Amino acid sequence: MTQKVAVLGTGKIGEALLSGMIRAGWDPADLLVTARRLERAKELQERHGVTPVTNAEAAKSADTLILTVKPQDMGTLLDELAPHVPTDRLVISGAAGIPTSFFEERLAQGTPVVRVMTNTPALVDEAMSVISAGSHATAEHLAHAEEIFGAVGKTLRVPESQQDACTALSGSGPAYFFYLVEAMTDAGILLGLPRDKAHDLIVQSAIGAAVMLRDSGEHPVKLRENVTSPAGTTINAIRELENHGVRAALIAALEAARDRSRELASGNS
To answer: What's the CA gap between 4 and 72, in Å, rounded?
Structure first.
């Protein structure tokens, strides 16, 4: 792997990506990083052996630029990068809601841009990264993005028109599960269990259920039915979830997340 890759605005996700790439075989000498604070850049260098540079230096010397700054900071970063990015650079955006056209309009004509929505399980190499091509990105560019983000989990190609929906489902998705685990843990405490035991019960149940969903090939309805005995405990719990509109609330929540992604794309902070 001889191409140089630069991660710009290296926060937690950016660092997770770097460490995953190194484990997957990238030479740290080929990895460049930028950070807002000098202390952070030095910390990344000491921890991973990567090279801290300025944004302009990254644009000039890296073959691939991965932009991981917050959506509201992306315009400022592109203004800084634009004079230094040749058209043979691959630009990968990890910012929620921002379309590839936003980058193409601000960079040199013909610059290939790939949009990626990953999520926080990248920190444990279990990310779901959704990849879309801009108008100048080729299959080779997409494959390179998959190689990079495959180091920290699974990847999926989708048309860019589906990116806002994917942001709502998988980009924000871990938060929904954390919220559910939090609520179920509180329920366990209400039922008389110590917090640590309730937490362990729920977390292992969640892991087991996720592995079954991934590996069994069964529809979630079938798996749920296998747990749901006639007149048993589970069906009584499911009835209460339905009575309280949990399914409808989840649908409404994901629609709200999708709509917010669209607002970010339109520049509404």
So the answer is: 27
User: What are the C-alpha distances in Å from 259 to residues 12, 28, 147, 178?
Assistant: 25, 39, 30, 21
Task: Measure the CA–CA gap between 133 and 37, rounded to whole angstroms.
Answer: 31
String of DSSP letters for 32-56: EEE-SSHHHHHHHHHHH--EE--HH
pLDDT in the model for residue 267? 66
- pLDDT tens for each residue of 191-244: 999 999 999 999 999 999 999 999 999 999 999 999 999 999 999 999 999 999
Q: Which two tokens stand for residue 227?
A: 């747990």
End-to-end CA distance of the chain: 38
Element (H, E) at 233: helix 233-243
Say what the pTM is.
0.91
Residue 27 CA to residue 12 CA, distance in Å, equals 20
Any residues with CB less than 8 A from the CB of 188 and at least 6 apart, and which?
195, 197, 198, 199, 201, 202
Could you write out the DSSP letters of every residue in 161-177?
A: GGHHHHIIIIISHHHHH
CB count in 10 Å sphere of residue 199: 17
With beta carbons less than 8 A apart as the criterion, state whether 38 and 56 touch: no
Beta-bridge mates of residue 92: 66, 114
Q: Is the dihedral of CA 80, 82, 85, 89 positive or negative?
A: positive
- Residue 203: C-alpha distances to residues 78, 80, 199, 209 (Å): 41, 44, 6, 10
